[in-house]
């Protein structure tokens, strides 16, 4: 291995991945995904779809999940900075309903692996951010689920920016809390 460092989190299954960055006066090179390294790190997933989004400061996307077609996700911020969150929805887990968050940025180049059974979302901290993610199943629009971003029963401590209004999609304002899930 050696090209990535993998940190486990207090919630089983979540992993923060830091790749090795090779830089010089011209810029840098980083290998963002190598199946062999990920398998050696215990992430043996076949990704079938790559997605990318762009958002401005204050946008909060999430907390989303697929109900019948859950997805493993490998996420990263390729421009700007976000606070990325995963909420454990695995009913048999001792950490059901708990959340974990990590700052992902173009600067730190960290990635966040979120296995099936988690809701996922992020909040944009920079003026502009581009967010990329790999998924282990295809998006099924009729299978979408979500949790309200500010559910007090989950208690995500979003690093909300002072003086910046949260920008949510219509659907993200209508999700219910984890008790309804």
TrEMBL record:
Q: A Pfam family matched by this chain, by name?
A: dTDP_sugar_isom
Residues at the active site = 64, 133
Q: Which InterPro entries match?
A: RmlC-like, RmlC-like_jellyroll, RmlC_Cupin_sf
Matching CDD domains, A to Z?
cupin_RmlC (cd00438)
Q: Pathway, per UniProt?
A: Carbohydrate biosynthesis; dTDP-L-rhamnose biosynthesis
A biological process (GO) of this protein is: dTDP-rhamnose biosynthetic process
Q: What is a single cellular component term in the Gene Ontology annotation?
A: cytosol
Q: Which SUPFAM superfamilies match?
A: RmlC-like cupins
Q: How does it assemble?
A: Homodimer.
Entry similarity comment: Belongs to the dTDP-4-dehydrorhamnose 3,5-epimerase family.
Can you name this protein?
dTDP-4-dehydrorhamnose 3,5-epimerase
| Organism expressing this protein natively | Butyrivibrio proteoclasticus
Q: What is the lineage of its organism?
A: Bacteria, Bacillati, Bacillota, Clostridia, Lachnospirales
